[in-house]
Please model this.
Amino acid sequence: MTTGCLTILIALIIVLGVPVSWLWYRHWHDGHVNSERRDRAFASIREQARATADETARALGTSGATGTDALIGVIWRHTEAPVITYEASRREFTATAARSARYDHAVVFPGGGPVEVTLCFVVTYTHRTGQAWTSRVSERDDEVCRPGTDIGGLVRLAQTRISGMYAQDLTRAGVQKALDPTGRHTYEVKSVVREGDSTTVSVVVSSSGAAVGQCYRFTRPVPGGAGRGPATAVPTSAC
Model:
């Protein structure tokens, strides 16, 4: 090999080696940064879940509420967990919900940006006679929270549809048709009751495949005439 060829070969190695080395370093560096950001996001979710559970337990103790549905309402206001159940034999309320956080995903080439990570939590609130409310947070597989996520989306959809209904259509049959026009059986309207200037609709909202069902009470003001009004929603122990 001549000196000229050797010089050209060395130059090519340097020219090609520098960007390859840089790409390798960036890949390693970005992977390390993303791992740290992801870990911080997960830690933030766990910390928030524990803080919310503690705050909710304190609220249960200071609310003065005694009825099952009233206590579920306190839990709902603080956690917005789509599925809240009550076990009378243990005097325990269980709230199941997924919590999410985002972090910026670093990449060498375009295509990075915010990435969402999610964790599933089951929180148990217990009240023993003569003792303060306590909370216990358990982290579960994503599958445990998936039915609740479905129900949460269905509840928001039901709020929108009930809010948009005319007053004269707020009957059991009318609400059932509005919520489930194709007969998917994700909603089962149990009752529609008008008291004063508001209408209360009790509905069993079921996840895909009816794996989990949660009763919700939708309350909507009834303005004069055939007007519409915004509906609120809260889970209840039974319909």
Summary: The radius of gyration is 27 Å. Strands lie at 83-87, 92-105, 113-126, 134-140, 187-195, 198-206, 213-221, 232-236. The longest helix spans residues 3-62. Residues 15 and 77 are 62 Å apart (CA to CA).
